[in-house]
């Protein structure tokens, strides 16, 4: 029962995060490191990928693929978390947190999210 509830929460998390990329894109532009080109395109691809991951996780036949997509995304998002740490946790007015909060987003939260998605690969 816990695993099913956890799965529903994971699906809602990624579906919501994906949709949020389109509702509040400016917040995401600020955390994309400046050395990466075209933050608008990166934000769109990330939002679509999160929505696709949620859909893949929703069905037993595609759940493993959804798990792999989430893990790949979380690894791909690491530069944004490192950039946030380099900026002291504040990314303009859109996102501002204490530096320790930025560190927590990278470690352990990123690894917890990876482990959570990995749990559904079988």
Automatic annotation (TrEMBL):
It holds the Pfam family MauE. Keywords: Membrane, Transmembrane, Transmembrane helix. This is MauE/DoxX family redox-associated membrane protein. The chain crosses the membrane at residues 41-59, 66-85, 97-119. The keyword Acyltransferase does not apply. It comes from Ferruginibacter yonginensis. The keyword rRNA-binding does not apply. Its main location: membrane. It is a multi-pass membrane protein. It is found in: Membrane.
